[in-house]
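Table 4 source record.
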Amino acid sequence: MPGTRWTRWMSRLPHAIAALPWTLASIAVIVLLFLLVKALVAVLGHDRYAEHGAGSRSEAVMVPGVPVATESVLPSPSPTKTRRESGGGPGAAPPPAGRTPTASRSVTPSVSVTPSTASPSPKPTTLLNDDAPGISYRGRWAVSRDRPYGDHRDDVHYTIHDGDSFSFTFTGTGLDYITSRDPEYGDADVWIVDAGGRPVKQQRVSARANRYQPQQTVFSVRDLPVGTYTIWAVKRNGVYFQVDALRVRG
């Protein structure tokens, strides 16, 4: 019996040897197909991310794509906090603009006139109170009126909720954001975008101070080309976020 079994295995050996190349060829084809599929997936995945380029991920804070609506939306005011100190003084006045050049001319070809020197011609400015039409408040804002602390017109808009924001669209060459400083006030992100929604300036500003200081300019943009722009500011931290006034520069 052992001899018969051995003879049977030996008789099958030529068939196994003959089938070996086909078996190896099949394995090679399967491996090649697997590698091709893997390479194709890698190439497609690379192209998909290459379309966007580096830094294409959205951040938690988005610059507005288009100027926001300017319709004022004011919620019902909540009770305001009573302060025991006023302190501080009005913010610094805006610096004077540059001089306007003038040309000299002669009365007659033979007599010259001394060039005249023009006085500084400051750009016109408009100071808007926090309740001015066109300032749009988004979130849960309140109004504090009849304040004896030196605020512009003795009133402010304020919120205590991170993420609340305000916006305002203006036409001119610049704008100042005026608010108060205080130990309980925090930071805000401020953007200026043009009429096409493209960012012109972005800055994180702080309203912290060691005591209450009214009418402080915490953000300013100037000398822009005359056009239409939008300011957009978002509360990030601290207890209070406040709007006292906006100064538009012509």
